[in-house]
Design goal:
Length: about 290
C-alpha cells in the first residue's frame, strides 16, 4: 500500500519514510531567486534609462559608466547656467547687423520681439512699463523654453523639473509686480493695489488679507503650473517604458505611444513657456493697474 502526496511518498511496507525532493522544487526555488534578480535588474534599468534625470536628479553621468569630470552637471543650478549659455550663444549666432528689410533668422527674431512687446507686454502691462519690461519677457520665454527642451535631450535634465527653479522664476514675477507698482504709482502703489481707494474701512479688514493671499497665490500658481506640467510628461514616459521593460514584448506597442508622447512633449515645452510668460504679464498688469 502506497500513499502519495505531491512529491513525497510513504511506503507502507517496512514503515520506511522516504522524502524525495525533485528537481522541480529546486527549479522553482531557482526561478524565485531569478525573479527577484530580474525585478532588481528591471528597477536598475528604469532608474538608469527611463527615469535617469528624475529618480537620480542629484547625479548626472553616463549609464553604467561613471566619468568624474561629468559630476559638475549633477546640480540643477548647473543646468540653469548651461541653459543660459546656450540661449546667449543661439541669439548671438542668429543676430546679425540690421538690414532693411531683415532676412532669415534675424527677421524671425525681430518678429518674436515685436510679438512680445505688442501682444503681451503692451496689451497687459501698458505701453510705458510694458516697453521697459519687453527685454525681460523676451528672455524669460526663451530661457524657460531652453530649460524645458534640455529635459528631452538624453543624459540631460530639465531644470524646470525642480520646484526650486520654478519657484525662483515665480518670485521674479512677484518682485516685478511690486517694483512695477512702485514705478507706476509711487511708494504707496502696492498698498493701493491691495486697498483700493473709496472702499469703506470695515471692508478693508477683510479685503486686504484676501488681496495679500491672492497675490502670493498667483506666484504659487505660476510655480506649481510649470513644475507639474513638465514633470508629468516625464512621469508618463517613464510609466510607458516601464511597461515595456516589465512585460516584455507584450507591451511593445507602448513604445509607439511613448514616441508620440515625446513629440507631444515638444509642444508642451513651447506651450508652458508661453503660458508662464503670458500669465506673468497678466499678473503684473493686474497689480500695477489695480483700478482697472
Amino acid at each position: 500500500m502506497t500513499a502519495q502526496f505531491g512529491r513525497f511518498s510513504w511506503g507502507g511496507t517496512g514503515g520506511l519514510l522516504s522524502c524525495t525532493v525533485s528537481l522541480d522544487v529546486t527549479s522553482a526555488v531557482a526561478a524565485a531567486e531569478t525573479s527577484v534578480e530580474t525585478r532588481t535588474a528591471v528597477h536598475d534599468y528604469i532608474v538608469r534609462h527611463a527615469m535617469y534625470h528624475m529618480a537620480e536628479s542629484d547625479s548626472w553621468n553616463l549609464p553604467y559608466v561613471h566619468l568624474r569630470f561629468l559630476d559638475i552637471f549633477r546640480y540643477d543650478a548647473t543646468m540653469v547656467i548651461v541653459s543660459a549659455l546656450l540661449l546667449v550663444a543661439a541669439v548671438s549666432l542668429i543676430w546679425r547687423r540690421r538690414r532693411d528689410p531683415p532676412r532669415g533668422m534675424t527677421a524671425l527674431l525681430e518678429f518674436y520681439v515685436l510679438f512680445i512687446r505688442d501682444k503681451i507686454c503692451g496689451a497687459f502691462i501698458g505701453d510705458r512699463l510694458g516697453r521697459r519690461l519687453t527685454p525681460y519677457f523676451c528672455t524669460l520665454f526663451l530661457f524657460i523654453l531652453t530649460m524645458n527642451l534640455l529635459g528631452l535631450v538624453p543624459l540631460f535634465s530639465a531644470a524646470t523639473n525642480n520646484i526650486n527653479v520654478t519657484g525662483a522664476l515665480a518670485l521674479l514675477t512677484l518682485g516685478l509686480m511690486l517694483v512695477g507698482s512702485v514705478f507706476e504709482n509711487g511708494l504707496r502703489g502696492p498698498l493701493k493695489a491691495m486697498a483700493p481707494p473709496g472702499v469703506p474701512w470695515p471692508l478693508l479688514i477683510i479685503l486686504v488679507p484676501v488681496e495679500f493671499i491672492s497675490t502670493l497665490g498667483k506666484a504659487f500658481a505660476l510655480m506649481i503650473r510649470l513644475f507639474a506640467n513638465i514633470l508629468a510628461g516625464h512621469v508618463i514616459i517613464f510609466c510607458l517604458l516601464g511597461l515595456v521593460v516589465i512585460l516584455g514584448y507584450a507591451a511593445l506597442p507602448a513604445i509607439l505611444l511613448a514616441i508620440v508622447l515625446f513629440f507631444f512633449e515638444l509642444f508642451v515645452c513651447f506651450f508652458q513657456a508661453y503660458i508662464f510668460t503670458l500669465l506673468s504679464a497678466i499678473f503684473i498688469g493686474q497689480f500695477v493697474h489695480a483700478e482697472h
